[in-house]
């Protein structure tokens, strides 16, 4: 049976979360000290300390004077026309976005998210069995081989013999033939069972038929049958 390797860590996390969120019973918190009693105006908000205001403090940078000359004459030697033309010529053309139209009014929709575009079947790992399934199949196969070897060893120790298909079919046909004979004898009983020997004989036939039916059912259900060599 497959068991995840993350089971212990998930179990520990769940246990930690459960312990942290427990609310049954009184909360285990520190009892407040009687010395720290509530004082008057202790819940009121305190304002920050006042700062002295100076009217002469500048709030914005000063306005440039008339005598200040701005920097002029700076020019770039970059030819934007040629550079833009080269970028367009050497650049890769943009592909149009795939869309589909499903109405006569011309409503457009994205094709990739619609499910009509074969997106996932083009992946490299499409249709490949995941690694964890392969590993689990190998573990199951190995466990089955170990179980078969264990059964074979036990059968050898107990001197068990496996019935072949021909022997199994012969036993099955023999049981069915015996059931037909007992059933024929049961059908030939008298209608009135008015004596103790007749009742005992009827019960015996019914038990034999019931046992034969059980044996036939067991052999038909199980294809492999082992018998002990006494």
Question: Mind explaining what this structure looks like?
Answer:
The structure is a single chain. A hairpin with a 6-residue loop joins strand 1 and strand 2. The longest helix has 28 residues. Among the domains are: 62 residues; 67 residues. It is elongated, with a radius of gyration of 47 Å. It is mainly α. Strands 1-2 form a two-stranded antiparallel ribbon. It has 5 helices and 4 strands. It is found in: Cytoplasm, Cytoskeleton, Cilium axoneme. This is ENKUR protein. Keywords: Cell projection, Cytoplasm, Cytoskeleton.
Provide a short characterization of the protein structure:
The protein is mostly helical. 44% of the residues lie in helices and 5% in strands.
Which secondary structure elements does this structure contain, and how are they paired or packed?
Layout: H1 7-20, H2 80-90, E1 99-101, E2 108-110, H3 131-158, E3 160-162, H4 165-187, H5 196-221, E4 226-228
Antiparallel strand pairs: 1-2, 3-4
Helix pairs in contact: 4-5
Query: Helical residue percent?
Result: 40-55%
- Helical run tally: 5
Q: Structural class of the secondary elements?
A: mainly alpha
Widest sheet: strand ordering: 1-2
Query: What fraction of the residues are assigned to beta strands by DSSP?
Result: 5-15%
Q: Order of SSEs, N→C?
A: HHEEHEHHE
Overall radius of gyration: 47 Å
**DSSP strand tally:** 4
Span between termini? 37 Å
The geometry reads as: elongated
- Largest sheet composition: 2 strands, antiparallel
Described by its quaternary structure, the protein is: single chain
Subcellular location: Cytoplasm, Cytoskeleton, Cilium axoneme
Protein name: ENKUR protein
InterPro entries: Enkurin_dom, Enkurin_domain-protein
GO molecular function: calmodulin binding
């Amino acid at each position: 049976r497959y068991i995840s390797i993350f089971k212990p860590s998930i179990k520990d996390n769940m246990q930690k979360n459960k312990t942290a969120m427990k609310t049954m019973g009184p909360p285990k918190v520190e009892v407040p000290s009687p010395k720290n009693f509530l004082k008057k105006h202790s819940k009121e908000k305190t304002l920050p300390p006042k700062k002295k205001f100076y009217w002469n403090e500048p709030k914005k940078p000063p306005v440039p004077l008339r005598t200040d000359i701005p920097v002029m004459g700076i020019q770039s030697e970059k030819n934007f026309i040629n550079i833009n033309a080269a970028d367009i010529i050497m650049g890769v053309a943009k592909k149009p976005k795939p869309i589909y139209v499903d109405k006569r009014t011309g409503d457009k929709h994205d094709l990739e998210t619609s499910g009509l575009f074969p997106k996932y079947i083009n992946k490299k790992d499409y249709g490949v069995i995941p690694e964890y399934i392969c590993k689990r199949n190998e573990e199951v196969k190995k466990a089955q081989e170990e179980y078969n070897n264990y059964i074979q060893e036990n059968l050898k120790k107990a001197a068990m013999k496996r019935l072949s298909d021909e022997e199994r079919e012969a036993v099955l046909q023999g049981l069915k033939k015996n059931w037909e004979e007992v059933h024929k004898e049961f059908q030939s009983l008298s209608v009135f069972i008015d004596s103790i020997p007749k009742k005992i004989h009827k019960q015996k036939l019914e038990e034999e038929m019931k046992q034969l039916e059980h044996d036939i059912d067991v052999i038909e259900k199980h294809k492999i049958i082992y018998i002990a060599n006494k």
